[in-house]
């Protein structure tokens, strides 16, 4: 009876393991399609090999149904999809894997059977299978509908396919898709609009990574595809990035559940401390509040009781922090709402004060959570170390009084050290370029915000947390892109200066272009300027008038003093004089000028040409 009572908390914890944790997979079915031997396009080597690897991977993972087919015609593919849809009606998880050619037409994706000709763009509607047809086949599954497409290759019919409508678009790779059904994920071997690589071996990089990570027991399918993405980026030199479209709920959804550990037998153990340690490890595996409370109800004192209380404190701090985040969001939303409505200033001021108070409470809860997590982690590390040195005996501090701070056995990390560690890890993944000084400044917050953007996470950027450290550490390679200033180029993880060869210059597009030869300068040519020429003409006309007057005086029986003045003006200028008499007119000789002598009349010139 006593042994039965002792096992009651363990039975409760075991029930919590399956009742409070994530939903575990029930019936799982999979369809593997691989097309290599195309009749009207170049054949592909890897798809059939990739299909064989994925079929074996899913069978080894314990899937109830794994139907593997290759090199199917359009008619055969439709029949296989129809039969597979029947198998998914009572399934919890349904997976379709396809390797082969796929194309995008007018924003819709199509899988290409081996007998397709596709002489014109509209033939895809008759000879190919749309992605929507695949989604219909997995629709009945209850928990997860997963479609994996290793089909982001160049369109083999693109050069010969006739366009019935000039404006009909035929894209590169596959088009982005947003599933309309819940609990549906569609995984591409390469991001929409990009093509994938077949690799140098018998299998594509995408399939190799899938076989390693997708069926890891207990691993959420979204994290599995995250590991697949990282490995493909690493193996292809960042040239191919797999992508997943769709969303799931908050619970983990592994393709392969964690196997339940065998329950301890009811026979009394020879060492009570061994039972206590096993009970603790079982509660640690469950990891929620009811499991720890059940453990403390059975083992209220001692070393493991102190550890359990630290785990409870951590859970409490995490819950308080989550509540503080929610309250801060509500306060900010209320403040923004009042501001948008133009509420009275005192109401907006109260809302602003509430938002600031909620934000401060969130920061306090964040620090308390981090401290509790650090203490629990340090204590757990100490426990593991002690168990490794003496696995069959209880720790020396078993009889320690309740409330003993077990975390003091191992020094806890300080906030400055935590900030420095997060900065160092952010720098490793290319998101932080400053010095890891432990000061969580605005630049550090921007760096973590940039990490959130490119990693798809939602870490709190206001403080450096252990959650952030663990998340950044999980990324094996660069996350944030390398940005280089003008005049520099990316060289691995560094920016190097661009050096152009002789005769080349760096243009605004950061590229070296050949320097153009300078155009020969044209000699200056004299141009007629009417504005400058006009006074000269006027002066010549004026001189001519004076000479004409002089000539008129000679031929017209006398002249006036004005003629002499004109002659004097002409002499000063030294040009433009004309001498006229009864025989005609001629220019004044060089070195000569006209002087008015008076008189005038027939045979008596009023002006005389005087030479030096």
UniProtKB/TrEMBL annotation:
Source organism per UniProt: Bradyrhizobium commune
Name recorded for this polypeptide: Caspase family protein
Residue stretches spanning the membrane: none
Record InterPro entries: Caspase-like_dom_sf, Caspase-related_regulators, Pept_C14_caspase, Pept_C14_p20
A Pfam short name: Peptidase_C14
Annotated GO MF terms: cysteine-type endopeptidase activity
PROSITE patterns hit by this protein: CASPASE_P20 (PS50208)
Coiled coil: 314-389
Residue segments, region Disordered: 514-552
Residue intervals of the Caspase family p20 domain: 26-156
GO biological process: proteolysis
Domain of life: Bacteria
Biased composition (Basic and acidic residues): 526-536
The entry's keywords: Coiled coil, Signal
Stored PANTHER family: MUCOSA ASSOCIATED LYMPHOID TISSUE LYMPHOMA TRANSLOCATION PROTEIN 1/PARACASPASE (PTHR22576), MUCOSA-ASSOCIATED LYMPHOID TISSUE LYMPHOMA TRANSLOCATION PROTEIN 1 (PTHR22576:SF37)
Region forming the signal peptide: 1-25
């Amino acid at each position: 009876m006593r042994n039965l009572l002792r096992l009651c908390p363990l039975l409760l914890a075991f029930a919590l393991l399956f009742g409070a944790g994530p939903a575990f997979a029930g019936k799982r079915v999979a369809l593997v399609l691989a097309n290599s031997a195309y009749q009207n396009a170049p054949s592909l080597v890897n798809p059939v090999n990739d299909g064989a690897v994925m079929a074996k991977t899913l069978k080894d993972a314990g899937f109830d149904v794994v139907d593997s087919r290759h090199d199917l015609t359009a008619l055969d593919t439709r029949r296989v999809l129809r039969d597979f849809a029947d198998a998914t009606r009572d399934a919890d998880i349904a997976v379709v894997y396809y390797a082969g050619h796929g194309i995008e037409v007018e924003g819709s994706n199509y899988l290409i059977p081996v007998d397709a000709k596709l002489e014109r763009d509209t033939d895809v509607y008759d000879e190919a299978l749309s992605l929507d047809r695949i989604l219909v086949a997995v629709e009945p599954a209850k928990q997860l509908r997963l479609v994996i497409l290793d089909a982001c290759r160049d369109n083999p019919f693109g050069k010969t396919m006739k366009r019935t409508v000039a404006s009909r678009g035929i894209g590169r790779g596959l088009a982005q898709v947003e599933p309309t059904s819940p609990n549906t994920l569609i995984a591409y071997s390469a991001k929409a609009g990009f093509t994938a690589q077949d690799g140098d071996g018998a299998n594509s990089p995408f399939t190799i990574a899938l076989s390693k990570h997708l069926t890891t027991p207990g691993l959420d399918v979204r994290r599995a595809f995250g590991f697949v993405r990282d490995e493909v980026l690493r193996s292809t030199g960042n040239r191919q990035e797999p992508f997943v479209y769709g969303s799931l709920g908050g619970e983990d959804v592994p393709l392969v559940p964690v196997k339940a550990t065998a329950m301890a037998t009811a026979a009394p153990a020879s060492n009570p401390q061994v039972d206590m340690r096993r009970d603790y490890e079982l509660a640690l595996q469950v990891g929620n509040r009811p499991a720890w409370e059940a453990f403390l109800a059975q083992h209220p004192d001692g070393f493991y009781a102190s550890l359990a209380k630290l785990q409870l404190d951590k859970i409490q701090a995490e819950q308080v922090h989550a509540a503080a985040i929610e309250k801060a969001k509500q306060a900010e939303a209320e403040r923004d709402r009042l501001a948008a409505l133009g509420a009275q200033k005192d109401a907006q001021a109260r809302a602003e004060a509430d938002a600031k108070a909620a934000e401060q409470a969130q920061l306090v809860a964040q620090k308390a959570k981090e401290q509790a997590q650090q203490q629990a982690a340090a204590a757990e590390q100490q426990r593991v170390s002690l168990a490794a040195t003496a696995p069959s005996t209880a720790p020396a501090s078993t009889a320690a009084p309740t409330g003993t701070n077990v975390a003091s056995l191992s020094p806890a990390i300080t906030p400055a050290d935590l900030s420095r560690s997060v900065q160092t890890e952010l720098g490793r993944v290319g998101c932080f370029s400053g010095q890891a000084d432990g000061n969580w400044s605005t630049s550090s917050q921007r760096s973590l915000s940039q990490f959130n953007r490119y990693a798809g996470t939602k870490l709190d950027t206001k403080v450096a947390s252990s959650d952030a450290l663990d998340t950044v550490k999980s990324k094996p390679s660069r996350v944030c892109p390398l940005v280089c200033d003008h005049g520099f180029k990316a060289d691995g993880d560094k920016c190097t200066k661009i050096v152009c060869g002789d005769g080349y210059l760096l243009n605004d597009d950061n590229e070296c272009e050949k320097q153009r030869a300078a155009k020969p300068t044209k000699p200056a040519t004299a141009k007629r300027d009417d504005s400058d020429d006009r006074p000269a003409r006027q002066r010549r006309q004026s001189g001519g008038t004076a000479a004409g007057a002089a000539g008129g005086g000679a031929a017209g029986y006398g002249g006036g003093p004005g003629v002499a003045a004109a002659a004097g003006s002409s002499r000063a200028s030294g040009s433009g004089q004309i001498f006229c008499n009864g025989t005609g007119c001629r220019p004044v000789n060089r070195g000569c000028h006209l002087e008015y002598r008076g008189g005038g009349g027939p045979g008596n010139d009023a002006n005389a040409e005087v030479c030096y």
